[in-house]
Amino acid sequence: MMDPQDKLPNYVTNVDLKYPYSDLPYIGQYKLLKLPFTGKLIEHVDYWGEGSIVNGGLYSGFRNCYNVNRQYQEVSNGPDMGRKIPNRIPVRDENDCDTRAYIKDDSVKIVTLMSAPIIPNSARDITRIVNERVGMVVIYGMPVESQGIKLLAAELKSKLLLYCPDYELPDYLQEPTMMDSHVAFLNKQLLMDLLFKCVSTGDYDKAVTITKSLQDDNVGFMIEELIDRLLRAREPNVFAYADKLWSAGHHDIVNDFFPSEIKLITKQERVKIIGRYYNQALKLDSNVDSYNNRLAWGDSKDKISHRVSWKFIPVWENNKLLYKILNTEYTMYLKLDMNVEEYGDRKAWGSNNSNEKGHLWKLTPVVLETGNVLLIENHEYGQSLKLDAHVDSYGDRLLWGNNGNVDGNPGYFGWVINAWQ
């Protein structure tokens, strides 16, 4: 017969969180002191947890959390088998698992569950206690397509805690090694921050997977918010993000959520490239020089002819998306001159070949009060396109690469992309 002292919870391996009702049966009918006692949130609740267990070299459970479990349940395996569960939050049984007498609503940062069935009562209680703003729910050892996960996902969606495919757990949540899989539900802010990071660091495969999951969850407004955030951050990778979604066959996501200029470029449709400040569309000269190149101009009047029709051709280089800019009237590619003028600027030309680095361009989105514009920077020379401040006898303006930084004046250096009619 086990000595009563030996049945006490193991607070050598586990941290004693000093909860006064941990060793008592379920007494939810009384008015109890609810967690958290202070204004701070509870760090972690392990649903059906039994504390940290090492069994055969494998780890399960956690040493520093509250464990929701049946009122008479003891540790079921490992060296502490038969002892009371540390930091237990008691519930009547697996079918009557309501912790509202012990845990306040919306008060827990992390809720975990390991290989235990998820029923409507437990799904509702997990959703009730997890914090909507900073919370996370992680389920171990259960396939994402299982009925229990679907049940939990439906409840958590009311708080916008959403499934995140292939989420890499923080180190603390990787401590259990008994389970080789997990399903994570993240709060909106954490999910949006993760997706923003995936795009900005070039982890496009993960960005596409998460975005498709958001679409499947019918939360397209979150995709819209992400794209708006990328645009306002002037994140050039927003074009690569759209291109990867399009290439993966998610045409509806690109069409439904991206602004018109990104859609036009991604779909390689004919466009007009219009200097915002002077409202002139780019064209190539009708005459060629001795190398059969054509100077590029802003046209003072024409915004409809084939001369002002262009396409952006994507070129992937070291996981970065650049573009060649093709004039469809002459089938010539825009480039900057290898020689500089008096102020260090370079003339822009159309050429028949496109095999030089001077033919590659980086696009940066900018949001202005009057609408979106692009800064178009040459990859070889680091100069962004601009129109000359002076006009010729036709009112047209030469196109140049600007010698200097243009980020501070997108209203002057920005380009509007419209569909070519």
Average of the residue pLDDT scores: 95
Which CATH architecture of the largest domain would you pick? 3-Layer(aba) Sandwich
Q: Strand count, sense and closure of the main sheet?
A: 10 strands, antiparallel
Would you give the CATH topology of the largest domain? Rossmann fold
**Rough shape?**
elongated
| Unreliable stretches | none
Per CATH, the class of the largest domain reads Alpha Beta
The succession of helices and strands, N to C, reads: EEEEEEHEHEEHHHHHHEEEEEEEEEEEHE
Structural class, by secondary structure, is alpha+beta
H/I helix tally: 9
Tally the structural domains: 3
Global Rg: 30 Å
Number of extended strands: 21
How far apart are the first and last residues' alpha carbons, in Å? 89 Å
- What share of the residues lie within helices? 10-25%
Protein described:
With 421 residues, this protein is α+β, with helices and mostly antiparallel strands. It has three domains: 1-190, Rossmann fold (3-Layer(aba) Sandwich), CATH 3.40.50; 202-258, Arc Repressor Mutant, subunit A, CATH 1.10.10; 263-419, Trefoil (Trefoil (Acidic Fibroblast Growth Factor, subunit A)). Helix content is 21%, strand content 27%. The chain is built from nine helices and 21 strands. Strands 10, 11, 12, 13, 14, 15, 16, 19, 20 and 21 form a ten-stranded antiparallel sheet that branches. It has a seven-stranded mixed sheet with strand order 5-4-1-6-7-9-8. A hairpin with a 2-residue loop joins β2 (53-55) and β3 (58-60). α4 (204-216) crosses α6. The radius of gyration is 30 Å and the shape is elongated. The termini are far apart. Its main location: secreted. This is 30K protein 19. It comes from Bombyx mori.
